[in-house]
Every structure is written in C-alpha cells, then in structure tokens.
Amino acid sequence: MPKTKEAKQYRVLNPNGIPKGVPILSWRGSNWFEGDILEAPPGLSVERILKEGYVEEVKSD
Amino acid sequence: MTKSSGLSQQFFVRGYDLSGDVGAINSAGSPRGILEVTAINKAGKERVCGLTDGQLEFATWFDDAALMEHVALKSLPTGSGNVLWALGGSIGSVAALLYAKQINYDWVAGQDRSLAGRIMCQADGTPLEWGNLLTPGKVTHTGATNGASRDDAASSAYGIVGAIHCTAFTGTNITVVIQESSDNGGADPWATKLAFAQITAAQSAERKTATGTVESYVRVSSSGTFTTADIVVAYRRGTLQDEVAL
Whose CB among B15, B186, B237, B238 lies 3.0–4.6 Å from B203's, allowing a Cys bridge? Predict the structure, then answer.
C-alpha cells in the first residue's frame, strides 16, 4: 500500500527576540508562538517566513 | 502625501498626551555637525558629516490639571524620555520621533495675563527621526487588537524604529508589537518584527529598534490582560543613509 504524503511541518522560531507569550506568527485569527509546530493550512504560504527564519522545517525520520 | 496644513496635530511626552496644552512647535530639527577635511591638493573646502543631533522646542499653555503639562514637565527629569509630534491623526500621518532630555521649564507671564511656557528637548544618542503613525493617532484598545495595516509599497532592508506612548491603562499588562507581511496577511502570515516592552502602567513610552528586512505591509497588534489601553505608535524604516545601522 503506498505511503500517504504527510503535510510538511515547521517549527516556529524567534529570530527577532520577541518575549515569550507574544505570537510570532498570525494568520486569519490563528496565532503561533515560539516552539509551536506549524502545519501550514491551505492558503498559507511559508516561503517568506522560511526564508527569513521565522520557521524551520521539521525533518521526519 | 500632499501639501497640507498643520491642523489636527498631536503631541506626546513620556506617555503624557499634551496635545491639548501645546500651542506651537517652535523648532524641530536634526542639525548635523560638519567636519572640514580639506586636503592640500584641493582648491575648495572638503567637508564630511560629523555627529547627528536632534531638538524639539515647543510652546505650551499653563495647565496643572491631572496628567497635563505641569504634571508632566515640571519635574525636569534627569533621565531621557521619548517625545512624539504627530502631524495628523491617521495611520501614515507624518510624525517626528525624538529620544531626548528635557532641559528647561521656562515661563513668561504676559501683560495680557497669558502664561506661556517654552520647553526645549535635546536628543540623547539618536537624531530627531521622521517617521509615520502606525495607529490613527491615539487609540484605545479594549482587548487584544490587530490594527489596520499600512502599505509602504516595497520592503526595506535596513530595519525599523518603533516608538510607543501609553497615556492611559487599566489592567495587568499589555504587549504591543509591530508585525510585517508581504501581502497584507493574504497568503503570507503576519510575522512579529518588533515587540515593545510589556506595559503595566500608563505614562510609559519607549523607542525600540529591530534589524533586517521589513516587508511592505506593517501593522500594530496588541495582546495581554487589560481592560483599556490608550496608545499611539509611530515607526520609521531604517535607510541606507543611517549613520548607525539599526
């Protein structure tokens, strides 16, 4: 049986030294904080935030 | 973005809203020192820029009501504080930001019985900076709020300066941040670029910087445990011309 493709996961980083408890990313009413795992919902582009170090890809084994 | 008058200005000193007392801005400047470095092989003087500076002198009418000019200015604090002169009350209105020492509290009692003060603030470490409001003048947040955005049409690469004044506060704390997005939060999420220190009391103000790329859209966002907070936020994008990178 072919393995289903899982959505990519990203860990939220804190490149600007934002204090704890303050959301690093906000999108359409959702907030993500440092250390959260972001599974990008449909319509959300991670291209820029990945490039600028707001998130890093979580490598699965 | 057009020729305009000076109507509907606002003025804040160290978290006090003195817009109702200040009658005029006598001078707002960022003078620069000039060093003559003429070489012997030149026929004309050569000059390079020296230190930057900043000053803001304003005229105020006497007012000893709560939270008004006499209460705010009479103590002549020895530490430095933030001053914000907004030339309008909309997001994007031009604003002058100054981190400065208040060096006097001088008064003239006129024969017409007027009581007019002239207050000079001189920069401490940074010049007077020209930026823009990121809130529509002073606004009241009654809970976590995402402000309307401002589109600067292009991203910039030299950081950002933010200034906040909190003139009234009820609650435990509020944290105000500046967020950025390349498409106004369409597909590109809002990312927090700069966070001001948590505010727990009124009459607080802060100037804060962040480095790096700043996307074309910026907005103010607040969170915390509070009932009401009156704040005004202004910002300036860093430029290649900044003497010291942000």
Answer: B15
